[in-house]
Amino acid sequence: MTMHRKPLPAWALLVLAAVVLLAGIGLRGPWPADEPRFAQIAREMVESGQWLFPMRGGEPYPDKPPVFVWLVALCYLVTGQLKLAFLLPSAIAGLGTLWLVHDIGRRLWGGDVARTALLVLLITPQFLLQAKTAQIDALVCFWITLGCYGLLRHFVLGPAWGWFLTAFVAMALGIMTKGVGFLPLLMLPPLALWGAGAGTAGWGRVWGGRSWLGPLALLATLALWLGPMLWQVAASGSAELQAYRDNILLRQTAGRYANPWGHLKPWHYFLTQAMPTVWLPLTLLLLTQWRRLVRVLREDPRARILLAWVVLVIAFFSLSRGKREVYILPALPMLALVAGVLWQRAVAEQDEGMSRFVLRLVAGVMGLAALTLGALALWQPGALGAKAAAYAEELADLAWPLLVLGVVSLVVLALAWRRPLLEQLAAVSLACWLVVALWAWPAMDPHRSPRVAMADLEQRLPASAELGLLDFKEQFLLYARRPLTHFSYLAPLAEQERNAWQWMRERPDRWLLLPGSDRLACFDLSRAQPLVAAHRREWVLLDASALRPDCPPPQQVRRYTWQPRRLDILEP
Questions:
Q1: Contacts for 542 with CB less than 8 Å, ≥ 6 apart
Q2: Which pTM does this prediction carry?
């Protein structure tokens, strides 16, 4: 048997993870589709002092609850730099999830399983990607993991009523982040079935008379947000705020789950498309050890509880027609713990050879693929096909980072050959993410922001001109250097157009910015002035000469004006 060096301690892995998750913060701006939206909402909170109702360009934003943007805004208050602040909550949430997984793994199975679960997360692309982007999912994953942690501390390692209450508070915060924070409740049926065999406490001691305090803690935490919000909506009498309330409480939660209007996928999407890709190489580890997994589940009720919960979470999201890969991210930490138990059993039985071969082969192939792609982009871009020609500038900027990424992955794979397998793969993963965060992403930043387009716009417009936005994206608000007027992000395009037509008719020095692909009835697009492309879309300017003589009136006059207070908020 090959001899390996002593494994790295958990604290060293956590330090390395912190370095990677924090690397690159401040080197790029917010990227579409979601990051500019959350950064702009947080900016408006800080600049206006109004934190109860998230605003996008002065209009209520009803798609997501406020906790994530509250944290971005808090980081902005502390750092004074939005370019630093917008990525911090996800990075901190990722580190928190890693710590929770290690700690509960250590308490349930010991240090070896805990370290292995930590390594599994560090080699899973989806986990690190979400922890390094300003999306809600890393934070909601943390709250759900904390909820599971609290339930396990109570039902399996307890009784621990403090952790029981913490679990329900975490669920409430998860609901206030993305609505699905209640998912730890799906662990209660497996705990009821197998908890007695998994823990040391009697049934009555953990399911006793104080259990009602959990739902009370959840409702009390929710009331800290819902109470002031509902009171303000009722007191204002505003139809706009009433629409916000109905949207955030019903349409974006139960309505979106039961009748989704986007990301429609078949029921098996997570099993056949998402998990085999975004959870690679974890899925290969499970497949190559499936017989041992069956034995582990038969013998260990703790692993059975966790895997049953993972299955219930995936089933819950599979029942809805709307599906995205990030929806199943909260299931990953508990699955990593099951994989930790499984892998340590395989190592103890000296039967990890097939997994070792397959996972190393995949790592090597991916490194060679990055190396080949970088070399082709650098010296033979035509070999990448006709479609690649549309991305010529991006490929030129990514060629060297891709080439170095491939070299780094193969070199680290070779240098760490005598380390334990998962440490070897984690070394490759972390090294590659450093290249991505410190080089590849900064190289892509000019292509993912409208900075150049907005500079072009400022050169064309007189200083006194007013600018309106039609069918806009939030990054234009972030990079604006003058007041911007829009006509409700939530309104249909035809309604926005009619409002924009009325607005432009009122003064001669008003201009309109819109996508060049829009088809409009109230404007003559042959008079459009093209701008430099922004985030792979063509944008054009219209002045008063593009107004057609007539346009149907809008059903409702809706205008929102955003006045930037700081003009250098995302400058390099």
A1: 504, 511, 512, 514, 523, 525, 527, 528, 529
A2: 0.94
